[in-house]
Amino acid sequence: MEQKIYILVVEDEPDVLDSIVRDILSFEEFFPIEMADAAEEARDLIQELLDNDHQIGLILCDHVLPGDNGVELLVEMQKNEATSQTRKVLITGQAGLQETVRAVNEADLKHYISKPWQKEELVGIVRELLTDYVLHHVKNPLPYMQVLNSERIAEFIRKGGGPSDQ
Q1: CATH at 109
Q2: C-alpha atoms less than 13 angstroms from C-alpha of 158 in its C-beta half-sphere
Q3: How many angstroms separate the CA atoms of 89 and 148, rounded?
Q4: pLDDT at 5
Q5: Which residues constitute the domain of residue 75?
Q6: What does the buried/exposed string (b/e) look like for 16-39 if buried means 16 or more CB atoms within 10 Å of the residue's CB?
Q7: Does some domain include residue 147?
């Protein structure tokens, strides 16, 4: 089976989940999108993907979820060697400063997006974070040029770049 790099979207409001997925659909050809509506479901999905030798390149996660909140999930992922390199984004209108600071400090949060978001902003953030992930984890980033930041990938290749542990 071919190893794939997934995008995971965790959001409990169906309309918001649909909007996020619709906004980032242009990435799905290269980065399959999986969805969960609770932290527990996300954990199961993460484990299933990892068990099938796939990677999670990016998680877009709401803060307020049934059961554990999104920050708890992101912190957990950061502590897990298999998902610590996943690029993490908190998308919420509800996280307070204390929870946001915790996500930054303990989950290596790469971005915070407040609701409602602008599609262009979300797409730009997804593109840059997936570009970062691919440049650090993929031996040949060339096939991703059509959907990611082609200038950064070309520069990386010109400089003789290969995967690293950053």
Answers
A1: 3.40.50.2300
A2: 6
A3: 17
A4: 98
A5: 5-117
A6: bbebbbebbeebeebbebbbbbbb
A7: no
Q: What is the pLDDT of residue 97?
A: 67
Q: Where are the alpha helices (DSSP H) in the chain?
A: 14-24, 39-51, 70-79, 97-107, 119-137, 150-158
Tell me the C-alpha distance between 148 and 124, whole Å.
Answer: 9
Q: Are 71 and 102 in contact (CB under 8 A)?
A: yes
The pLDDT of residue 164 is above 60 = no
Q: Give residue-wise pLDDT tens across range 114-128.
A: 889 999 999 999 999
| Structure-token pair, residue 116 | 């409602």
| Residue whose entry in the numeric block shows the structure tokens 């790099």 | 5
30, 59, 100, 159, 160 from 6: Cα distances, Å: 9, 9, 24, 27, 26
